[in-house]
Automatic annotation (TrEMBL):
<comment type="similarity">
    <text>Belongs to the cytochrome P450 family.</text>
</comment>
<feature type="compositionally biased region" description="Acidic residues">
    <location>
        <begin position="12"/>
        <end position="30"/>
    </location>
</feature>
<dbReference type="Pfam" id="PF00067">
    <property type="entry name" value="p450"/>
</dbReference>
<dbReference type="GO" id="GO:0016705">
    <property type="term" value="F:oxidoreductase activity, acting on paired donors, with incorporation or reduction of molecular oxygen"/>
</dbReference>
<dbReference type="InterPro" id="IPR001128">
    <property type="entry name" value="Cyt_P450"/>
</dbReference>
<keyword id="KW-0560">Oxidoreductase</keyword>
<keyword id="KW-0408">Iron</keyword>
<dbReference type="InterPro" id="IPR036396">
    <property type="entry name" value="Cyt_P450_sf"/>
</dbReference>
<feature type="region of interest" description="Disordered">
    <location>
        <begin position="1"/>
        <end position="48"/>
    </location>
</feature>
<dbReference type="GO" id="GO:0004497">
    <property type="term" value="F:monooxygenase activity"/>
</dbReference>
<keyword id="KW-0349">Heme</keyword>
<dbReference type="InterPro" id="IPR017972">
    <property type="entry name" value="Cyt_P450_CS"/>
</dbReference>
<dbReference type="GO" id="GO:0020037">
    <property type="term" value="F:heme binding"/>
</dbReference>
<protein>
    <submittedName>
        <fullName>Uncharacterized protein</fullName>
    </submittedName>
</protein>
<dbReference type="GO" id="GO:0005506">
    <property type="term" value="F:iron ion binding"/>
</dbReference>
<keyword id="KW-0479">Metal-binding</keyword>
<dbReference type="InterPro" id="IPR002401">
    <property type="entry name" value="Cyt_P450_E_grp-I"/>
</dbReference>
Length: 393
């Protein structure tokens, strides 16, 4: 049971407002599924049925949201195209509550219990995250690339100014390429992205990364080996190309963008910067991952960066399965898309005290984290579709 379930989030600029002032989700309508004329488990994904039901008797009609969400997704799409979906949805949660209608067939949810229900590992195929051994085997290569990035940043800074984001991006892309394909693109040495990477990013940035990827030291050698050993294989050239592009996009910009936010947030707090530098200077020059794991402030700053500035805080959409979803007194039938977003959960001041503030010490003692905070912290997603690059990142 989570506090403040099913209620409005405080507005961003009035964090101290009493969140309990409005205990409803803005609707007087009866929230019982029976009143929608839809039985539990009834599938409304069928297009004809949906058109027939229309906005008036839609099973979602009592879920609050902007008036147009009952008729069209055009406004939502406008925000998506403008790259503002996260902020738009966050503002809707603050206005309408934890369950908000976004379009005729999409509902956004920022209720933690529902979050767990939606993302928990089901009984079907379960994807597990990359395990630590990937990191252990590849640590020297990763460190060598990180050191090179720091050298390049220092050289540029000494010559006038350094484009830190550029070097983090080149570093992350080289690391992902090396681990995935067994060979780096050596973009750090070149000092720029290869046209090949430019093309992949342009083609895939708008797509959603959702492919089944196994996580091995060299993913492609395994895939191709499998293809060689079988007469019939599901793995086509196009699939290999798509997987390759997905990995590059999923692993490089996310890591680089998170790192640049970390630098920015720390530089804004000179006191924090000094303490962090002191902690890191006490570590051995080897900087093994074991040693890094035991640097409390460094890890706390990383967690806090992922909380406020993680690079993928947007919608994780899921289709409601046959049994439907009950959330905050609403019943959402099968076929409807429900989405949760870390951006809103991570800024919920009922979960994280002073949630809008970057507090580098917030996670200094992780044993103090409440169960609710642990569930809410989801910069890498959650459940069966959790980021496979989590440990590497
Ligand atoms: C700070 C860095 C990173 C962040 C914040 C991040 C975040 C995420 C999130 C939130 C998801 C879940 C998407 C969903 O549920 O629909 C995801 C999935 C994924 N990530 Fe990451 N990621 C990072 C780094 C990486 C790296 C380094 C790699 C690869 C080397 C990677 C590969 C993937 C892949 C392949 C998926 C898709 C998994 C699936 O569809 O089941 N990510 N990531």
């Amino acid at each position: 049971m989570f506090l403040e379930d099913c209620q409005k989030l405080p507005s961003e600029d009035s964090e101290d407002e009493d969140m309990l002032s409005d205990g409803s989700n803005n609707e007087d309508d009866n929230k019982d599924a029976g009143d929608f004329g839809v039985e539990d488990g009834q599938d409304v994904s069928d297009k004809d049925t949906q058109e027939l039901i229309g906005p008036i008797i839609s099973p979602l009609r009592s879920i609050s949201g902007p008036w147009h969400s009952r008729f069209t997704s055009i406004v939502l799409k406008g925000y998506i195209l403008a790259g503002r979906r996260i902020h738009y949805v966050d503002s809707l949660h603050r206005e309408y509550g934890t369950v908000v209608r976004l379009s005729p067939d999409e509902v956004a949810i920022s209720n933690l219990e529902a979050f767990s229900q939606i993302h928990k590992v089901g009984s079907g195929f379960i994807r597990s995250a990359c395990n630590g051994s990937l990191l252990a085997h590849r640590e020297p290569e990763i460190r060598q690339k990180a050191e090179l990035a720091v050298i390049k940043i220092r050289e540029d800074a000494q010559a006038g100014s350094a484009d830190i984001l550029k070097w983090w991006t080149l570093m992350a892309t080289d690391v992902v390429a090396h681990l995935s394909f067994g060979e780096s693109f050596r973009m750090q040495e070149l000092g720029k992205q290869t046209p090949y990477i430019d093309a992949i990013q342009a083609a895939l940035l708008c797509g959603v990364v959702r492919n089944e990827l196994s996580c091995t030291v060299n993913i492609f050698s395994q895939m191709l080996g499998q293809a060689d050993g079988q007469e019939k294989t599901e793995i086509t050239d196009i699939a290999v190309r798509t997987e390759a592009g997905n990995l590059i996009v999923a692993g490089s910009d996310t890591t680089a963008v998170t790192l640049i936010y970390l630098i920015w947030a720390v530089l804004k707090q000179p006191q924090l910067q000094a303490s962090l530098e002191l902690e890191v200077s006490d570590l051995s020059p080897d900087l093994t991952s074991e040693e890094l794991k035991n640097a409390p402030l460094l890890n706390s700053v990383l967690e806090e960066t992922l909380r406020l500035h993680g690079a993928a805080p947007g919608a994780l959409p899921r289709v409601v399965p046959e049994k439907g979803l009950s959330v905050c007194g609403y019943f959402i039938p099968s076929g409807i898309v429900v989405s949760t977003q870390a951006y809103t959960l991570h800024r919920d001041s009922t979960i994280f005290q002073d949630a809008q503030r970057f507090d580098g010490y917030r996670f200094i003692d992780k044993s103090q984290m409440t169960a609710v905070q642990k569930t809410a912290m989801s910069p890498f997603g959650a459940g069966s579709r959790i980021c496979i690059g989590l440990h590497l990142a």
